[in-house]
């Protein structure tokens, strides 16, 4: 079974689904949604099977489930897929979030027809590119998926977003992304020239540990990093995200913020740290400062928003700051936290956006002033929403806490001041999350809403699945950490850094607990 | 009792070090000690997940599971009591929690005399209050949720005291914060109550900020955050690190235990249903800060400077709360101020170090009984008076509500330290220990504690008279006061018995000191004034306080409060705590947030600059760009890629 092309299969399934949906004959047009859901669930099942083939103990190559084929050997491009623990967990997270989002988006385009088929086909195409971007072990192939992702997202926001500024937001998203991509393209090509060349010259493995001049390495690093920083997004190139997320449908926002943006932080680990270790260390002070600014700045701006989708979006920017901080603090603890945060943030953001979407579907407004007292109208939705908010403010026992704690604890080992500033987010996140909850759900019961129904079965399934992950990964994060641990060790080996020893650890016997 | 006799160290200055040694692997009941947490947690889960189906039996299930946790705790304490005093600590490893290549922590339970004392307090008082709630919340439509949250609270509080590491403790710590938030906001259809809930959570988070930094310091200094590991590493650690850890732990304690400067939330927290005020905001959760300091005694033993800060916070808050308590007309808010003040006593005692740890916990236990009793009594009064809480509308209720009057009266006598009752044994000990030492400290801390005892007697007598005596300030058709139902009376009676006798049982018999000594250590101290002199002084001040309040309020209490002196007016406004917070934090914070939002919409977006200009300002141009943009982009890309590939081929 080890030679079975698991990753290709996972990636192709949604693509086939998208094709099936787009060629559905008129008479069976109403099958578009069930077909989309079916294919995404099938991809998830295959994904779980693939994960059982993944080994976490013993000596393994960096990439497992690997497939390498020549593609355009003249220029060194291969069709090469493979995953380490980080990529695998991100793929699995995405495979869960797509069917959940599809289910939540059931009534986004209610009338069967071309438009509905287009919407769900685009979501599936997006899923394919997501799998591709995380699974690529060829730099050029990664770049192709990195660009290809933009197209379905652009249309999902611009054509299906529905808000008055949807087109503006879609264009802004595209331009920001392109600006970064073009820089990265230059860097990708220049990187190839530094490498051994040949028919597999773009393989990550062949580009790791190159000897470059200091300047070259730094320029290449910058080229990649800016693209990833925009994608992540980091302050000050974050402004496209609140617009895009608030103008998109909630399900699109989930895939955009919860999944696509992870490509940025994933790329920092896979490419910036692994391919340019010295430049990464060189850039660390600046990036740590930017990450801390992202954390605090976005949290404060989130407090001042009136649009609930924008609150969530800014909260995400703050959380991405934590992820970047953890990556560049470069300790085993902080990177474990950052990697785990990427997974946790996916579920937390999905819960926040989708539950907000459930509420918006009932009251047709994204703005605070139109709400109040909804706990008395939809108590169950209120409970789930609060759970999502608590996850967003990193309450212990819920998923985000473990990752946020690890990021800052690991950062503190090396950068006490930066970590000290980052901890202020503990207070700020409580403010923006609980003020959001207060404004939407508390207060006297609104008049004229007696006919509004609480969550239906479909919505309960969505909420239930997300709640299981939010609580499960909070109480027992070990399975995820076990998958991530070898990848973290590998990244740190590539960069060549060691954890600082405890300053007063001599008195302790040193045995691991 | 033989073991007790042998371990009393006479009058020697240094008694025990307080190192309980290594905790044994759990056997017997201790090996299922996790049930103590799991049972109430199960209750919360069933009630929350089961939804309306559990409306009928849910509350009873919650009460039963809470009592079940008490029974397990009791069996455990019986098992432990049979062992030698040095062997009374059990450790139970539960599961691998956060295994990373760097930070590595397992979840486990530490069952030692200190945590078991808390287990008893939490499960016994908690279960009694749940029984009371069956009556108190009988007519609330959301009754099921109330019991679910209460069980969640009990489970979290038990996690807090049973965890074997600082991070495990922190899980319980924020868990009780969540339960507190949910229950303060239980009636959050009232916007003020929703704000009160948020205020409590935010203040606690400021404390949690400190807690996290303390844990980070521990991890970077020691590489471990479990109690055993930290305690072992403290000797030989630099002063600066220890002071840092100590002060951040103190900040954490201030948030949770409503100590200055994070005390402002407790008064507002009285928005929650009264059983919540009794259990969470009087008997248990708010004392968690004291637990944290005493649990960290190895750190505080090593840093007298951090301990001094603890003493200052405790002394300041105990006086602050006492002054505020004198001015409040809201019965529950007056009791809340009193709680703040009493916890100030405990924090002061904890700050005194080995002479005080035991008495901090002792007072915490007796206070848990009498303050819970006082709150349940005030709930009974509210119940009888259509939820009125303004004491200026009470008066003369003693004849109508005899059980409430007697039980409340015992709590009242206990808290003011009436000789023989619980508070007398625990609080007087703290006052005595505050006079231990040399230089200015015993005089400042001792006199503060002593004078506040007199003020306590004044405000508690005022509160008692205004509620139960003096002239009735209510009329029949509007109010029809009546005694509470049996479910409410029985818990009040039990707690009143505790208020009366718990101190006598635990104090003069040395049971409490011998029980806790192996964990926290103990040192005999010599007060600068002799014990009998202090006892007499305390008694005189107490009588003076009672007399003064009797003189002012016995005959008549006006329904509209008099204007009062500037100090009274300031105390009614909680000595300006909210004004201070608003001026210092809220308003600047609001301006900063607004400025940032403005900057983010205009500045940052604009500064990204060329790109934004490229997008252009007008919708018109956008639309034009939009048409076929992707197509032209794709084309450009294609051309570009082909060109670059071509170049590469040539180069090769």
UniProtKB/TrEMBL annotation, chain A:
* CC per GO annotation: endomembrane system; membrane
Q: Which Pfam families match?
A: Proton_antipo_M
Membrane topology is: Multi-pass membrane protein
What's the main place this protein lives?
A: membrane
GO BP terms in the entry? ATP synthesis coupled electron transport; electron transport coupled proton transport
Q: Could you say which enzyme class this protein belongs to?
A: oxidoreductase
Signal peptide positions (record)? none
Question: Where in or outside the cell is it found?
Answer: Endomembrane system; Membrane
* GO MF annotations, alphabetized: NADH dehydrogenase (ubiquinone) activity; NADH dehydrogenase activity; ubiquinone binding
Q: Does the keyword Nucleotidyltransferase apply?
A: no
Question: Where does the NADH:quinone oxidoreductase/Mrp antiporter transmembrane domain lie?
Answer: 136-428
InterPro entries, sorted: NADH_Q_OxRdtase_chainM/4, NADH_UbQ_OxRdtase, ND/Mrp_TM
Q: Give the record's family classification.
A: Belongs to the complex I subunit 4 family.
Name by which UniProt lists this protein: NADH-quinone oxidoreductase subunit M
């Amino acid at each position: 079974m080890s030679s079975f092309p698991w990753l290709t299969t996972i990636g192709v399934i949604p693509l086939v689904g998208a094709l099936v949906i787009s060629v559905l004959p008129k008479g069976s047009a109403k099958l578009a949604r069930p077909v989309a859901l079916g294919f995404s669930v099938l991809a998830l099942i295959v994904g779980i099977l693939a994960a059982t083939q993944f080994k976490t103990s013993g000596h393994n190559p960096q990439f497992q489930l690997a497939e390498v084929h020549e593609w355009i050997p003249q220029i060194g491009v291969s069709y090469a897929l493979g995953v380490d623990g980080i990529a695998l967990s991100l793929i699995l997270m995405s495979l869960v979030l797509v069917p959940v989002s599809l289910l939540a988006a059931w009534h986004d385009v209610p009338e069967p027809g071309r438009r509905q088929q287009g919407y769900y086909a685009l979501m599936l195409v997006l899923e394919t590119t997501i799998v591709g971007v995380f699974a690529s072990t060829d730099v050029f192939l990664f770049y192709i998926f990195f660009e290809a992702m933009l197209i379905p997202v652009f249309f999902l926001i611009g054509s299906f977003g529905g808000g008055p500024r949807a087109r503006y937001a879609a264009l802004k998203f595209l331009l920001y992304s392109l600006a970064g991509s073009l820089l990265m393209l230059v860097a990708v090509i220049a990187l190839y020239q530094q490498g051994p060349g040949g028919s597999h010259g773009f393989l990550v493995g062949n580009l790791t540990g190159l000897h470059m001049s200091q300047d070259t390495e730094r320029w290449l690093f910058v080229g990649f990093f800016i693209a990833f920083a925009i994608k992540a997004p980091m302050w000050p190139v974050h402004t496209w995200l609140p617009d895009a997320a608030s103008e998109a449908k909630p399900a699109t926002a989930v895939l955009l913020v919860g999944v696509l943006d992870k490509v940025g932080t994933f790329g920092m680990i896979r490419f910036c740290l692994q391919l340019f270790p010295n430049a990464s260390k060189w850039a660390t002070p600046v990036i740590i400062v930017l990450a801390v600014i992202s954390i605090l700045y976005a949290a404060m701006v989130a407090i001042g928003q009136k649009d609930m989708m924008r609150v969530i979006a800014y909260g995400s920017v703050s959380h991405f700051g934590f992820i970047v901080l953890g990556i560049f603090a470069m300790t085993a603890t902080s990177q474990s936290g950052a990697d785990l945060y990427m997974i946790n943030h996916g579920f937390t953001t999905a819960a926040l956006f989708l539950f907000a979407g459930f509420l918006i579907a009932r009251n047709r407004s994204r703005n605070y002033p139109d709400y109040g007292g909804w706990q008395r109208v939809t108590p169950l939705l209120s409970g789930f929403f609060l759970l999502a908010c608590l996850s967003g403010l990193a309450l212990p026992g819920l998923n985000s806490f473990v990752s946020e704690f690890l990021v800052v604890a690991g950062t503190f080992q090396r950068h006490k001041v930066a970590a000290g500033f980052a901890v202020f987010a503990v207070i700020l996140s409580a403010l923006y999350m609980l003020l959001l909850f207060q404004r939407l759900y508390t207060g006297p019961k609104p008049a004229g809403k007696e006919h509004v129904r609480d969550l239906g079965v479909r919505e309960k399934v969505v909420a239930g699945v997300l709640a299981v992950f939010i609580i499960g990964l909070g109480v027992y994060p070990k399975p995820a950490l076990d998958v991530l641990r070898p990848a973290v060790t590998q990244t740190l080996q590539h960069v060549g850094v060691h954890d600082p020893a405890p300053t007063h650890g001599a008195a302790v016997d040193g045995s691991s607990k | 009792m033989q073991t007790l006799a042998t371990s009393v160290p006479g009058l020697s200055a240094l008694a025990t070090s307080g190192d309980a040694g290594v905790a044994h692997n759990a056997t017997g009941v201790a090996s299922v000690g996790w049930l103590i947490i799991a049972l109430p947690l199960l209750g919360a889960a069933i009630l929350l997940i089961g939804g309306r189906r559990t409306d009928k039996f849910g509350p009873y299930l919650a009460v039963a599971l809470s009592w079940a946790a008490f029974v397990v705790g009791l069996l455990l304490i019986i098992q432990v009591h049979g062992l030698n005093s040095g062997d009374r600590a059990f450790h139970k490893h539960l599961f691998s929690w956060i295994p990373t290549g760097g930070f590595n922590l397992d979840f486990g339970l530490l069952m030692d005399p200190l945590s078991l004392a808390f287990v008893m307090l939490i499960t016994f008082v908690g279960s009694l209050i749940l029984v009371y709630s069956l009556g108190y919340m009988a007519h609330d439509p959301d009754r099921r949720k109330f019991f679910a949250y209460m069980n969640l609270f009990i489970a979290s509080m038990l996690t807090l005291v049973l965890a074997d590491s600082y991070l495990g403790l922190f899980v319980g710590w924020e868990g009780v914060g969540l339960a507190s938030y949910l229950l303060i906001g239980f009636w959050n259809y009232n916007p003020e109550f929703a704000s009160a809930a948020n205020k409590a959570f935010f203040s606690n988070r400021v404390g949690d900020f400190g807690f996290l930094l303390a844990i980070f310091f521990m991890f970077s200094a020691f590489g471990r955050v479990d109690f055993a590991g930290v305690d072992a590493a403290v000797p030989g650690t630099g002063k600066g690190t220890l002071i840092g850890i100590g002060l951040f732990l103190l900040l954490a304690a201030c948030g949770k235990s409503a100590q200055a400067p994070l005390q402002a939330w407790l008064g507002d927290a009285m928005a929650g249903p009264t059983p919540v005020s009794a259990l969470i905001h009087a008997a248990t959760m708010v004392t968690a800060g004291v637990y944290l300091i005493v649990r960290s005694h190895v750190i505080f033993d090593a840093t007298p400077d951090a301990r001094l800060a603890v003493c200052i916070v405790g002394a300041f808050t105990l006086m602050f709360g006492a002054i505020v308590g004198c001015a409040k007309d809201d019965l529950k808010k007056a009791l809340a101020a009193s709680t703040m003040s009493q916890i100030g006593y405990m924090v002061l005692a904890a700050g005194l170090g080995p002479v005080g740890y035991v008495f901090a916990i002792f007072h915490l236990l007796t206070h848990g009984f009498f303050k819970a009793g006082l709150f349940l009594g005030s709930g009974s009064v509210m119940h009888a008076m259509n939820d009125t809480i303004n004491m200026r509308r009470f008066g003369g209720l003693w004849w109508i509500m005899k059980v409430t009057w007697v039980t409340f009266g015992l709590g009242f006598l206990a808290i003011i330290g009436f000789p023989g009752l619980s508070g007398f044994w625990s609080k007087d000990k703290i006052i005595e220990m505050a006079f231990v030492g040399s230089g200015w400290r015993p005089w400042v801390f001792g006199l503060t504690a002593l004078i506040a005892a007199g003020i306590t007697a004044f405000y508690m007598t005022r509160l008692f008279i205004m509620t139960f005596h003096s002239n009735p300030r209510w009329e029949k058709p509007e109010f029809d006061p009546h005694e509470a139902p049996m479910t409410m009376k029985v818990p009040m009676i039990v707690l009143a018995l505790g208020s009366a006798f718990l101190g006598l049982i635990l104090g003069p018999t040395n049971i409490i000191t011998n029980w806790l000594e192996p964990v926290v250590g103990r040192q005999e101290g010599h007060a600068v004034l002799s014990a009998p002199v202090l006892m007499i002084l305390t008694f005189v001040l107490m009588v003076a306080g009672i007399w003064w309040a009797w003189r002012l309020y016995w005959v008549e209490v006006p329904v509209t409060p008099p204007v009062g002196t500037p100090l009274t007016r300031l105390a009614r406004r909680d000595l300006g705590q909210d004004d201070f917070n608003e001026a210092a934090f809220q308003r600047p914070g609001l301006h900063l947030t607004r400025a940032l939002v403005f900057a983010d919409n205009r500045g940052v977006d604009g500064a990204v600059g060329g790109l934004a200009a490229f997008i252009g300002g007008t919708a018109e141009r956008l639309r034009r760009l939009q048409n076929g943009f992707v197509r032209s982009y794709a084309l450009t890309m294609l051309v570009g890629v082909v060109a670059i590939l071509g170049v590469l081929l040539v180069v090769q």
